[in-house]
Write a structure and sequence with these properties.
heterodimer, A: 335 residues, mainly beta, Lipocalin, 12-stranded antiparallel barrel, 3-stranded antiparallel β-sheet, 2 helices, 11% helix, globular, B: 268 residues, alpha+beta
């Protein structure tokens, strides 16, 4: 048992080092690579302009989806997130809507490094597209912002050998960084509808996170709060800090090696005002409150999850931006 | 314990490296040289986009306007710094025509001294001082005004606003033409007006930074403002009118609000 654990730990360290290496090399290129799909500046459509909350940051780190599955477990795997937004192309009440699709594939993991500590890594690849009123389409794709968090459980876990009939609580405190490995193109920030149409936000951001939850028999509750402190990027753009929260309730059903866990929850995100050259950018703060339904199917140590989120209420960018939906699918190997 | 010392150390070093990397450039940068300030006059009607030859939503008097021409002269641009100093853009180059049918909606003011500005001021129309300089004193602007339907004749002077189209109302069910040509009528009636608009966010200008002010225009104010209410069903052609022309000149000053500014990168 101990040897297996040691091996796992060694593997996780190896993975971690590889991630760091990847991150550092990609970072050095990320903000220099000439942008291949140059956005067409100022087409014939009526030019509107406003900034977005940092949803690209959400796509790359999870936002109110959290850094895990919502279940209190350790894993590594792949997650796909699709987000559909629409934003107004213009400043008027009747300005046309433009549909924007943010897609992310993440290699992600929640890797135990000791009995109480875990490392959470999210390595995103983004591919976004949007269609303008004149039917021209813009796509961007590439590595997104990598985030790495360390989480520490304040409560001691009941040893596996003791079968507890009391609820098993956990409180995890953690922190980490989101690195500017995704390309931030300031030319997307002029003459375009939504300047958050980016692969990354270009800045080093710091994440503080708290997870609390408990399992009782087949039931479980998990809550999460995280706050991202964002800094000014090299293009002098400073996305507003972001507060995320979420509550999930789940129950597992077991059928021999197979288990099924439906999860319902709520989640929210609050974005502070963006700044450019240290001056506030109008209509960039916002908040959104979402409902969430998810189902995780597990067989042995493999888990397949599907998750849908719909907005219950939202006020993003003074109503000029709306989230339509978020859908996520993941395939994990549980540790 | 030893097992996770390595990753934690890596993480810590990472945090410290990243912390130090954003220290440079964070200090208040000096604004040096000059830059361009541009103003976008985004024409609308009652909160909606103004599209020529398309019926707008009925105004408060129940009149539905279909606008076919919406041109106006803006002039004498000034910018106020956050210290309260006023910079006046070179007067000879400070006359512009916003023309919806030609898609002319931008005013570009190059070589604005570096600084942080809080307020923009400008005139609507051509001031008497400029007009008194005679036809020669107008430079290229005279020909430009003629080409944009902004002149009566030299004696009568400039049209500051050229607003044309058709309308219907409860009493006027068949579309009728309307025409509003507002100007100073030589030197006998001075309808030149000025506006001063505080920006929602300051703009910065320097060698590296061009900035844009995006104005949202509400053409419905031409008829209905806080000071007067003009009905086309009573009079649909307003040209040299001693009562209504000055009212419209005042109404027009209420058309302009700043929707947002765009710091640092200009608009185009």
């Amino acid at each position: 048992m101990k040897i297996i654990l040691m091996m796992r730990v060694l593997q996780s360290i190896k993975l971690f080092v590889v991630v760091i290496f990847l991150a550092s090399t990609t970072y050095s290129f990320a903000n220099d690579i000439p942008f291949k799909n140059n956005p067409k500046p100022c087409l014939n459509y009526k030019l509107g302009y406003y900034d977005f909350c940092d949803t690209c940051g959400c796509g790359s780190s999870g936002g109110s989806m959290g850094f895990g599955t919502g279940l209190n477990n350790n894993f590594f795997g792949l997650r796909y997130i699709s987000q559909e937004y629409r934003s107004r192309d213009g400043i008027f009440a009747d300005s046309p809507w433009i549909t924007e699709n943010f897609n992310t594939i993440q290699a992600w993991g929640n890797i135990p490094v000791s009995k109480r500590a875990t490392i959470n890594v999210i390595l995103p690849y983004q591919f976004h597209n949007r269609q303008f009123v004149d039917n021209t389409e813009q796509t961007i794709n590439g590595l997104g912002d990598i985030s790495i968090l360390g989480m520490y459980n304040l409560l001691k876990k009941t040893p596996d050998s003791i079968i507890s009939i009391k609820p098993e609580h956990y409180i995890q405190l953690g922190g980490g960084v989101k690195m500017p490995t995704g390309k931030y193109d300031s030319s997307n920030n002029t003459g375009s509808v939504n300047p958050s149409f980016q692969l990354g936000n270009g800045s080093w951001d710091y994440i503080l996170a708290i997870n609390y939850g408990f399992n009782y028999r087949n039931w479980g509750v998990s809550t999460l709060i995280n706050y991202t402190i964002k800094t000014e990027n090299p293009k002098k753009y400073h996305f507003g800090n972001q507060f995320n929260y979420g509550v999930n309730i789940f129950k597992s059903y077991y059928i021999s090696d197979f288990s099924l866990t439906p999860i319902v929850g709520i989640a929210g995100e609050v974005y502070e005002t963006n700044k450019e050259f240290n001056l506030e950018v109008a209509n960039t703060k916002g908040d959104i409150f979402l409902g969430k339904v998810s189902l995780e199917a597990s067989y042995n140590k493999y888990s397949l999850g599907i998750l849908g989120m719909l907005p219950i209420s939202q006020n993003l960018n003074s109503g000029r931006v709306e989230l339509k939906n978020r859908i996520s699918v993941y395939l994990n190997v549980n540790l | 314990m030893k097992k996770y010392i390595v990753p934690v150390l890596v993480l810590l070093s990472l945090v410290s490296v990243s912390c130090s990397s954003d220290d440079d450039g964070m200090s208040e940068e000096k604004l040096e040289g000059t830059g361009e300030v541009s103003l976008t006059f985004d024409n609308g009607f009652g909160g909606n986009d103004l599209v020529l030859n398309t019926a707008n939503t009925a105004n408060a008097n129940g009149e539905v306007l279909t606008i076919s021409r919406f041109n106006y002269i803006v002039s004498n641009f000034r910018l106020v710094t956050k210290d309260g100093e006023e910079f006046t853009f070179a007067k000879d180059n400070s006359y512009f025509i916003i023309n919806q049918e030609a898609g002319e909606e931008t005013v570009e003011l190059p070589e604005i001294p570096a600084g942080e500005y809080t307020t923009v001021k400008f005139g609507i129309g051509v001031d008497q001082e400029k007009f008194q300089q005679g036809a020669e004193g107008q430079g290229d602007f005279l020909a430009q005004a003629e080409a944009n339907n902004m002149m009566w004749s030299w004696q009568a002077g400039y049209k500051f606003l050229n607003f044309e189209g058709t309308f219907t109302s409860e009493t006027v069910t068949e579309a009728e033409n309307f025409k509003v040509h507002m100007g100073s009528h030589g030197s006998s009636l001075d309808n030149y007006k000025e506006v001063s608009i505080e920006l929602p966010t300051n703009i910065k200008v320097s060698n590296e930074m061009d900035s844009n002010i995006h104005l949202k225009i509400d053409a419905s104010k031409i008829l209905i403002s806080s000071t007067s209410n003009i009905k086309f069903s009573e009079q649909a052609v307003i040209m040299v009118d001693e009562v209504k022309s000055p009212q419209i000149a005042v109404n027009v000053t209420e058309m302009f609000t700043v929707d947002h500014v765009h710091n640092g990168s200009g608009h185009n």
